[in-house]
Amino acid sequence: MRHSRSTSPAAAAAAAATVLVLAIAALSVFCEAGKTSAFVRKAEKTPDMPLDSDVFRVPPGYNAPQQVHITQGNHDGSAMIVSWVTEDEVGSSLVLYGTSENHLEFKAKGKAYTYRFYNYTSGYIHHCTIKHLKHDTKYYYAVGIGHTLRKFWFTTPPKAGPDVPYTFGIIGDLGQTSDSNMTLSHYELNPTKGQTVLYVGDLSYADDHPNHDNVRWDTWARFVERSAAYQPWIWTAGNHEIDFAPELGETRPFKPYNYRYHVPYKASGSTSPFWYSIKRGSAYIIVLASYSAYGKYTPQYQWLEAELPKVNRSETPWLIVLLHSPWYNSNDYHYMEGESMRAMFEAWFVKYKVDIVFAGHVHAYERSERVSNIAYTIANGLCSPVPDQSAPVYITIGDGGNIEGLATIMTEPQPAYSAYREASFGHAVLDVKNRTHAYYAWHRNQDGCAVEADSMWFFNRFWHPAPDSSASVR
Ligand SMILES: [Fe+2]
């Protein structure tokens, strides 16, 4: 929703002066050279952790629920989808829940599904949406029955509002190596406690194993349970979710992902689980699909065109987009792969003043300046990115630490749109303070420790569209 203002000549002159000052400030920011970090990591790939690793431990007891994870269950955050797997028999699809740990007074019934993939048969995958939750409330919940009942808890977000503080973790391309384990541990130990993970795609990397060994989908979900059972992970589909393997007779794209990870897409009027939106705290999160059609007239295009004008920045000031294949990427790895989607949607992101776009896919870290590249017509030659304070910051954070290793080769020289880039694993936290300010920090994995290597104060594009500050004082 936009503000309408009546404009007097004096106000117009003041506004023009402000624009000039902002333009000069933007230019000066853009003229500073971007940084390519000199920090160097080992270049070898790390294999996936062995199947008998403790992080993949199956909980004890017959048919004990495993792979428990939660995600937001509706548009405003008053519902939660609880998912888990039972291996021996279907068992119960009930979730017991309540606000007192020892008195789970409510119950909700879900559904169980199984699927086959080549020579693999899944366990019983349960999904249960619990609704009508109170905002800003700690709930305890339990799945399973009898002596294999397992208990967890989560906290619902405050009712959406412009100055609601909220913290998001950002993780991408995690996989299941010892580097992945380090990244997840660093996120869990980060003193700025993330309340929800924005996950930018590529989950298990099961497809890097022979026959897309779907056992690796199971191990991955057991690995992340220690976080994903206690706070929602907001899912984005990446290319490693496609699992298209006609050589194995598997021709239905996204089959394992769709069975295992449910999202509340219908609540935002989407017709596909690959693109949808949620409100959480003071943020409006739009998830897009790099691997679904987005050309003009396609369902995703039509949905996004209708979706962006619905965002009420007076209710949710922070407009954040998640997608997998980055639009601004100066790494040699996956260079230009996001270009066709950028060409379709970038003008809308500038028009609607998207604050930040998080992407994965490239196994390195990069943060852009605020730039846009939307002036081009086939005749005018204006095909270079230019500073634009209405544009998002683009962050590539596909650096979770998966089996494929780091993307260390970068395009040279570093393009002007690239503010900071580094080939290291890590995670980030976005700490939204109020409608104008959010502190953002990327933490590299460094010799077993998390080191804050890139940080910014982001200023909201709707309420405070000044150049962001790289001030290191919080
Ligand atoms: Fe990817």
Automatic annotation (TrEMBL):
Outline the extent of the Purple acid phosphatase N-terminal domain.
Answer: 65-156
Determine if Glycoprotein is one of this entry's keywords.
Answer: yes
InterPro entries listed in its UniProt record: Calcineurin-like_PHP, Metallo-depent_PP-like, MPP_PAP, PAPs-like, PAPs_C, PAPs_N, Purple_acid_Pase-like_N
Give the EC class as a word: hydrolase
Q: Which UniProt keywords apply?
A: Glycoprotein, Hydrolase, Iron, Metal-binding, Signal, Zinc
Pfam assignment, any one: Pur_ac_phosph_N
User: Listed GO molecular functions?
Assistant: acid phosphatase activity; metal ion binding
**Which residue ranges does the record assign to the Purple acid phosphatase C-terminal domain?**
391-450
Q: Which domain of life is it from?
A: Eukaryota
Name the catalysed reactions.
a phosphate monoester + H2O = an alcohol + phosphate
- Report the EC code(s) recorded for this entry: 3.1.3.2
* Residues of the signal peptide: 1-33
The Calcineurin-like phosphoesterase domain is annotated at 167-365
Family according to the record:
Belongs to the metallophosphoesterase superfamily. Purple acid phosphatase family.
Please give the name of this protein.
Purple acid phosphatase
Q: Which organism was this protein described from?
A: Vanilla planifolia
